[in-house]
Design goal:
By secondary structure, the chain is α+β, with helices and mostly antiparallel strands. It folds into two domains: 70 residues, no CATH class; 153 residues, 2-Layer Sandwich (Endonuclease, Chain A). Helices cover 42% and strands 19% of the residues. The protein contains ten helices and ten strands. The longest helix has 16 residues. The model has no long low-confidence stretch (mean pLDDT 88).
Length: 233
């Protein structure tokens, strides 16, 4: 945890949480009520960090300024990290499996991922399963119906929401989108499927992007295709 209380607060709050708190406090809401906009599992820590930073309903302009600074900082594209997978130890800049596990483990609100092929050999199974078991995390998975055993994925990730590509005019739609989105903020775009070969043997490339606008756009687009291009498992 950073020593600076403002840094600590900014590191902990998501842009959505900071925006909600700013709006409520600027409109005269008491801090004890405004903090209810934060997920219950994160609320006590958020209350402490807000108090440490001197954020209160008694100074709404100051509170709004600090919280909107958090929103602004998190909405700016400030990270573009290349992520590679290569055979052996050749990948010395990022690593797909390691980055995926780290991101999923550190998720606070949500995980949305899409892949063409999701095999039981993938090391990402366990990371997603552990995340889906948490009550404070919403896990959503999109799969290609022809390439992935969607029923098996749903069985393994019982508490996740799983969608598979549907069909148009009797023909299955091919879903080749491959990405992971964490907390509506971090986007991992990758050429790799969720499989042992993609994670260990192939040469795969991706980008880890910190951009809340991009994350929200991608998730909104996927949701808009529910019932047309994707069906729930």
């Amino acid at each position: 945890m950073p020593d600076n209380p403002f840094t600590a607060l900014g590191a902990y709050l998501t842009s959505t949480e900071a925006e909600a708190l700013a709006v409520l406090l600027e409109n005269g809401q008491h801090i004890s009520l405004a903090v209810n906009s934060v997920n219950q599992s994160r609320r006590e820590k958020a209350k402490k960090l807000l108090a440490d930073a001197g954020i209160s309903h008694t100074e709404p302009r100051f509170a709004g300024a600090v919280l909107r600074s958090v929103v602004g900082a998190k909405s700016v594209l400030h990270d573009l990290v290349p992520v590679w997978t290569m055979p052996g130890n050749e990948a010395d800049t990022g690593h797909l499996t390691g980055e995926f596990s780290r991101l999923v483990h550190n998720a606070r609100i949500s995980i949305t991922c899409a892949t063409y092929n999701f095999e039981t050999t993938s090391q990402m199974w366990d990371a997603l399963k552990q995340a889906a078991e948490r009550l404070d995390i919403a896990v959503t998975v999109y799969l290609d119906a022809s390439a992935s055993a969607s029923a098996a994925v749903k069985t393994r990730l019982a508490k996740a929401t799983v969608y598979r590509s549907s069909n148009i005019a009797g023909k299955l739609i091919r879903s080749h989108a491959k990405f992971v989105i964490i907390d509506h903020t971090l986007v991992l775009l990758t050429s790799a499927n969720f499989s042992w070969s993609a994670e260990n043997r192939n040469i795969e490339f991706g980008l880890l992007v910190h951009d809340a606008t991009l994350a929200t756009s991608v998730e909104s687009t996927m949701v808009s295709k529910h019932g047309t291009l994707y069906e729930i498992v």
